[in-house]
Amino acid sequence: MRTSPASPAASPARPALRWAARILLAVIGVVFAIWLVLFITKGRFLKHPFERVASSLADRKISVAGDFQLYFAPLRIKFLAEGLRVANPGWAGRPDLFAARRIDARIAPLSLIFGRRHIYTLDLDGGSADLEWDAPHRSNTWTFGKPGSGKPLELPRVDRATITGTRIRYVDPRMPLTADLEVDPIVSKDARIGKAVALHGDGTLRDTPFRVTARLLSPDATIGRGENALELRAWAANNVIDVSGKLPSISDIEGVPLHVRAQGRDLSELLGIIDVVIPQTRRYTLTSQLVKDGTDYRFTGLAGRFGNSDLSGRLNIANGDRLHMDAALNTRQLDIIDAAPFIGYNPDIVAAKGAVAAAAATGAGPRRVLPDARLPVAAMQRFDATLDWKIGVIRSRNVPVQNIALKLVLDHGRLALSPLTFSMARGNVASDLIFDTRQRPSAVSYDIRLARTPMGQLLAGYGVAQSGTTGTIQGRLKLEGRGDTIHDSLASASGRIAVVMPRGTLWTQNAQLAELDIGTFVTKMFQGKLKKPIEINCGLVGFTVRNGTAAADPILIDTSKNVVTGRGAFSFDSEAIDIAFRADGKKFSLFSGQSPVSVRGNFAHPTLDVISPQLIGRAGVGLGLAVVATPAAGLLAFVDIGDAKSAACGPVLAGASAAAQRTSKGKPRDDVGIGKAH
Question: Which of 560, 600, 557, 542 shows the shortest CA–CA distance to 576?
């Protein structure tokens, strides 16, 4: 009898398959039962488990105050929550990172496990987000998990969305910056929004109020986490700032090149927002590329104008524990009015009313030119700065200055302009200016050195022709004082001022007018020798400064025809001037006044007095002689016997004080004063 051909192993397989089928049916049944229970109950009973699990995963409290639904409808997960709140870390200024009156979404189930989360539809009403950095700038509210181990919030893909009543608050205490923004309603369909997403709002940056509007011009790219075109405009402190660029995500600007354009009435107001102090400017317009790199904000390709001057270069602002600004700038032409703020003048007042009015606006007294604008001591001690600025030429009728190079270092309140160099009338000026606000009042030092400079070109801007004038001058001003204004520091200053004139030639006209040698002047005029030059052997205009008063020490100019001396003083405090020049001839001259020419008044309005008491007295003597003797005898009072003593040029060219001056025969001079104000 033959047996069945079936394999002996086939019989045990059938029970296994049956068991597998039963298990599968059971799983399907359980899943269906769960689906059915969730569908019938809308998953409302999962509210508290959802809060516990979500809070554990996010490492912060998540709660739902109102209705809650979580179920399959039919194969997509429906999520509805009213009064949803996601808590902030304990250090944050507000309790919630995110809150919404109502969220209604359809979510792809597998996206919760694999890949990026995918939301088919999203209706969000009354949402508010609080984005905040902590004080050390190590943690923020939107990064979940423990500090250093959390992951930033990743926006899901959304196919269709309706978003209304959304507000965003952003706080960065390091800057410090606070912004409250409202997002305009958003409606998208088939993963396309179809129009720009706009927001607007206001806030404060370092206590300066601002308002802002922004638009995301490619919002569909935001949905897909692609490239987003951004346009932003902000108004703050009389300035308008425009920012545009393409962001890799809606909130990521790190390392992204942005185009920035700023314009306003005063650039110092713009930088003052971040506590950076610069001199006041006239209306400006600047463009640049901005890249944020951590705490650094790098502005490259800087170009624009302020007032009638141009500006280009780069600027880096490091917003670390202590703000530091580093800049390298270039200016082809700097208008003299735009340069006025560098010494404390308001350029608009200078342009409209002149330097005296600008000085008065700083608090200076009437008829004064030294500004009383105070150094911003507190601000200078809050930030540090380095600046390398090169200027091609100063645009001015009377100041032939060009090739300016300035190196500035501000370190914890000590401001050093060192060196500050420039060319003036083919001569060079080098200076070192120090304003140390760490000492109270500020310790200020001025060291200005003038290399040999042609007088003809230097004075050409004041109407003096260069022809016939070959003399040069060189000098140095070295003063130290105390005060928080230029006026106060000079009013308390002590030191030395000396201008030396080596050998050269000067118009006869200029010398003869100075000595009032009427006979020689008229004679040369009728002989056609008005422009015949005379020789300058050497000259020194020196002042010793004590407590703000500069006394002639000495004034001594030796020419081929006369010796010019001067006495007197001027005050940096009151700005009063009282100096008398006297020219004594070396040769006999008839009709010579032999009388001092006085310079009086003040810095703002100096006056030249050629009718001096000595000249009036000499005229009286001449009149008396004419009465008691003969008319010809009256002329004797105006005769210069030509007894002026030539100067030894060694002490003159060395800039020595009056006590060291000698005649050409080596004897001490008795006609140059003692270097003190009388």
Answer: 600
- Nearest residue to 140 via CA among 19, 308, 252: 252
Query: At a CB cut-off of 8 Å and minimum separation 6, what does 417 contact?
Result: 406, 407, 408, 431, 432, 433, 434
Would you tell me the crossing angle of helices 518-526 and 508-515 to the nearest 10 degrees?
A: 150
**pTM of the predicted protein model:** 0.70
**What is the phi-psi region of residue 503: left when phi exceeds 0, alpha when psi lies from -120 to 50, beta otherwise?**
beta
Tokens of 41: 């109950």
Q: How many CB atoms lie under 10 A from the CB of residue 665? A: 8
The answer to whether 574 and 601 are in contact (CB under 8 A) is: no
Of 632, 634, 562, 626, the C-alpha closest to 597 is 562
As a whole number, mean pLDDT of residues 506-528 equals 44
Q: What does the alpha-carbon distance between residue 384 and residue 367 come to, in Å, rounded to a whole number? A: 36
**CA-CA-CA-CA dihedral for 23, 28, 32, 34, to nearest 10:** 50
Predicted confidence (pLDDT) at residue 309 exceeds the cutoff of 50: yes
Tokens of 349: 């007042």
What's the distance, CA 438 to chain centroid?
A: 21
Mean pLDDT of all residues belonging to the chain: 78
Please state, in angstroms and rounded to a whole number, the distance separating the CA atoms of residues 307 and 329: 16
- Give CA–CA dist 232/219, Å, rounded: 15
Could you tell me the two tokens for 409? 């270092």
Nearest 10 degrees: CA dihedral of 23, 27, 28, 34? 160
Q: Is the peptide bond before 419 cis (omega within 30 degrees of 0)?
A: yes
* 543 close to 571: Cβ distance less than 8 angstroms: no
Mean pLDDT calculated for residue range 76-93: 90
Tell me, letter by letter, the H, E, C secondary structure of 480-521. EEECCCHHHHHHCCEEEEEEEECCEEEEHHHHHHHHCEHHHH
The amino acid present at 372, given as its one-letter code, is: D
Radius of gyration of the CA atoms of the chain, in A? 42
Question: Quick one: pLDDT at residue 517?
Answer: 41
In whole angstroms, give the CA distance from residue 268 to residue 82. 49
H or E element in which residue 457 lies = helix 455-459
Q: What is the tens place of the pLDDT at every residue in 446-457?
A: 999 988 877 766
Q: Which residues on adjacent β-strands are paired with residue 579?
A: 568, 599
The token pair at 274 is 């971040």
Euclidean distance between the first and the last CA atom of the chain, given in angstroms as a whole number: 155
DSSP state of 227: -
Look at 10 and 603; give whichever has higher pLDDT. 603
Strand ranges for 363-461 from DSSP E: 384-395, 401-411, 414-424, 427-436, 443-454
Strand partners, 506: 534
Contact yes or no for 328/312 (Cβ under 8 A):
no
Instruction: For strands 96-107 and 208-216, give the pairing.
Output: unpaired
CB count within 10 Å of CB 410 equals 22
